[in-house]
């Protein structure tokens, strides 16, 4: 069973000159439970090469690797799953291509998006942008915690909040009904990703126990 407590969207573009796989290595050691590979600006071959370097790290830690957007690459490297947005391949088609055993995540903003994604075979929902983020230029206007509350009440699959989440506000997302949080800059830009992940996990786990 996948635990979605702390989900890292490992953004190669944001990492800059730092090796994203080393960031991932530290983050999973600190308690990240799911890793998504994001590389919006890279070509297919570069994403494939990066995924092949990253997957052994996540497999060793027992953490699923999810490939953002690129279902073909997820299948090619036998990643644990893929994630699609509302402007990407439709979730129903993504599920058909991935098959029944791979993890499928879908980005949503509204209850109707969420219910459709659940019906189409999503295993989890990424809900956001919650607080406002600079990591995703296409995130749009923040939707706030109320969106988490509304969606979490209506779906049966895990809900993960994303967008401007940090150690200071992570507990609010869990208290609003999320099963976990997704972060980008909070770990990718952290001086020590392992310590930053430990701090976030402690906050999340304490909030989930309440």
Automatic annotation (TrEMBL):
Binding site for 4-amino-2-methyl-5-(diphosphooxymethyl)pyrimidine: 36-40, 68, 107, 136
Residues noted as binding 2-[(2R,5Z)-2-carboxy-4-methylthiazol-5(2H)-ylidene]ethyl phosphate in the record, renumbered to the chain: 133-135, 164, 184-185
GO cellular component, one term: cytoplasm
Comment on bound cofactor: Binds 1 Mg(2+) ion per subunit.
UniProt record, GO biological process: thiamine biosynthetic process; thiamine diphosphate biosynthetic process
Cofactor: Mg(2+)
EC number: 2.5.1.3
Pathway: Cofactor biosynthesis; thiamine diphosphate biosynthesis; thiamine phosphate from 4-amino-2-methyl-5-diphosphomethylpyrimidine and 4-methyl-5-(2-phosphoethyl)-thiazole: step 1/1
Annotated ranges, domain Thiamine phosphate synthase/TenI: 6-187
GO terms assigned for molecular function: magnesium ion binding; thiamine-phosphate diphosphorylase activity
InterPro entries in alphabetical order: Aldolase_TIM, ThiamineP_synth_sf, ThiamineP_synth_TenI, TMP_synthase
PANTHER family: THIAMINE-PHOSPHATE PYROPHOSPHORYLASE, THIAMINE-PHOSPHATE SYNTHASE
Family per similarity comment: Belongs to the thiamine-phosphate synthase family.
Protein name in UniProt: Thiamine-phosphate synthase
């Amino acid at each position: 069973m996948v635990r979605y407590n702390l989900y890292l969207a490992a953004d190669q573009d944001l990492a800059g000159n730092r090796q994203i796989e080393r960031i991932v290595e530290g983050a999973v050691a600190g308690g990240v439970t799911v890793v998504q590979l994001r590389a919006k600006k890279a070509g297919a071959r570069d994403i494939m090469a990066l995924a092949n370097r990253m997957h052994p790290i996540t497999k060793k830690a027992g953490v699923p690797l999810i490939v953002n957007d690129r279902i073909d690459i997820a299948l090619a490297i036998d990643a644990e799953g893929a994630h699609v947005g509302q402007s990407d391949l439709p979730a129903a088609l993504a599920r058909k291509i991935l098959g029944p055993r791979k993890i499928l995540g879908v980005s949503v903003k509204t209850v109707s998006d969420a219910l459709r994604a659940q019906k189409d075979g999503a295993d989890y929902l990424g809900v956001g942008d919650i607080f406002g983020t600079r990591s995703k230029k296409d995130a749009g206007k923040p939707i706030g915690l109320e969106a988490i509350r509304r969606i979490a009440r209506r779906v049966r699959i895990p809900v993960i909040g994303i967008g401007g989440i940090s150690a200071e506000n992570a507990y609010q997302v869990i208290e609003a009904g999320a099963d976990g949080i997704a972060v980008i800059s909070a770990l990718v830009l952290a001086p020590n990703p392992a310590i930053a992940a430990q701090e976030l996990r402690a906050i999340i786990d304490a909030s989930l126990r309440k």
